[in-house]
Amino acid sequence: MLSYQHAYHAGNLADLHKHALLAWMLAYLAAKPKPLSYLETHAGRGLYDLAAPEAEKTGEADAGITRALAENWLAADHPLRLALETVRARHGATAYPGSPLIARHFLRPGDVAHLAELHPAEHQALAEVAGFAHLHRQDGFQMAQALCPPAPRRGLLLIDPSYEVKADYEAIPRHIAKLARKWNVGVIALWYPILADSRHAPMVEALRRDHAQALISEVRFPPARPGHGMVGSGMAVLNPPYGLEAEARRIAALF
C-alpha cells in the first residue's frame, strides 16, 4: 500500500478530470470573503515534472494536460489553467501541480490546509513545496476523521487514494458516511478510477444510495496502453457548490 507513486501518471486524463473540477470548486469557495479549510487524505508529492523519466516512460500526460492545452479544452480564465500557469511560472514549463499546489493557488491568508501523505519519499517531497499547509504523515482517513469538522468549518475535503488495497472500495462509503455526519456542511469530494472490471460500481451505488444529492461525474477514455485497466475517471461530490454540475457536464463533453 506504500508502493504507488503518481509521478508515472501525473497530468493524465484522470488528473485532468479530477483537477479541473477541484480547481473550479476551490475558485468558487475562495470567491467568497469567508475563510475555508482544505483537507486532503492522500496528497502525494504536490509537484510533478512532466519531463521526468517516470512521466516520459508512460507518456500519459500527452493525452491529458498536454493535449488539453494544445486543443484549448481549458479557457484562459479556467481555474485549473490559472493554477497551472502560476506553478509553471515558478517551477518551469514542464511542471504539473498535484492537488496540494492547485489548492495553494486559491487559498488565502486565514485559510487552513491539512495534507496527509503516508509514503515516506512522497511525504518528504511534499514537505519541500507545501510549507503553506499542516502536513500529516499518517493514514489520511484517520486524519480526516480526527480533524472533521475542521476550523474554519467551511471548506473542502479531497479523498484521492491509490486503490491499491481492494478493501478501499468497501471501506470508503463507510468513511464518507461518518465524515458527512460530523461535517454536514463540508464539500466532500472523492476521486475514483473507472476500471474495465467495474470494481468501482458497488462503491458508487452505495454512495448514490446514502447521499442522494451527491454529484457523480464520470468520464470514459481509452486505456493508456494495451492491457491497462483504467478506462475512465469518476468524482463523487457531497454538497457540490452551485454550478459544479454544469462544469462537470462541460468537462465530460470534451472526452
Automatic annotation (TrEMBL):
<comment type="similarity">
    <text>Belongs to the RlmJ family.</text>
</comment>
<dbReference type="InterPro" id="IPR007473">
    <property type="entry name" value="RlmJ"/>
</dbReference>
<comment type="subunit">
    <text>Monomer.</text>
</comment>
<keyword id="KW-0808">Transferase</keyword>
<dbReference type="Pfam" id="PF04378">
    <property type="entry name" value="RsmJ"/>
</dbReference>
<feature type="binding site">
    <location>
        <position position="99"/>
    </location>
    <ligand>
        <name>S-adenosyl-L-methionine</name>
    </ligand>
</feature>
<dbReference type="InterPro" id="IPR029063">
    <property type="entry name" value="SAM-dependent_MTases_sf"/>
</dbReference>
<feature type="binding site">
    <location>
        <position position="42"/>
    </location>
    <ligand>
        <name>S-adenosyl-L-methionine</name>
    </ligand>
</feature>
<keyword id="KW-0698">rRNA processing</keyword>
<feature type="binding site">
    <location>
        <position position="117"/>
    </location>
    <ligand>
        <name>S-adenosyl-L-methionine</name>
    </ligand>
</feature>
<dbReference type="GO" id="GO:0005829">
    <property type="term" value="C:cytosol"/>
</dbReference>
<comment type="function">
    <text>Specifically methylates the adenine in position 2030 of 23S rRNA.</text>
</comment>
<feature type="binding site">
    <location>
        <begin position="139"/>
        <end position="140"/>
    </location>
    <ligand>
        <name>S-adenosyl-L-methionine</name>
    </ligand>
</feature>
<dbReference type="GO" id="GO:0070475">
    <property type="term" value="P:rRNA base methylation"/>
</dbReference>
<dbReference type="GO" id="GO:0003723">
    <property type="term" value="F:RNA binding"/>
</dbReference>
<feature type="active site" description="Proton acceptor">
    <location>
        <position position="160"/>
    </location>
</feature>
<feature type="binding site">
    <location>
        <position position="160"/>
    </location>
    <ligand>
        <name>S-adenosyl-L-methionine</name>
    </ligand>
</feature>
<dbReference type="GO" id="GO:0036307">
    <property type="term" value="F:23S rRNA (adenine(2030)-N(6))-methyltransferase activity"/>
</dbReference>
<feature type="site" description="Interaction with substrate rRNA">
    <location>
        <position position="4"/>
    </location>
</feature>
<keyword id="KW-0694">RNA-binding</keyword>
<keyword id="KW-0949">S-adenosyl-L-methionine</keyword>
<protein>
    <recommendedName>
        <fullName>Ribosomal RNA large subunit methyltransferase J</fullName>
        <ecNumber>2.1.1.266</ecNumber>
    </recommendedName>
</protein>
<feature type="binding site">
    <location>
        <position position="19"/>
    </location>
    <ligand>
        <name>S-adenosyl-L-methionine</name>
    </ligand>
</feature>
<keyword id="KW-0489">Methyltransferase</keyword>
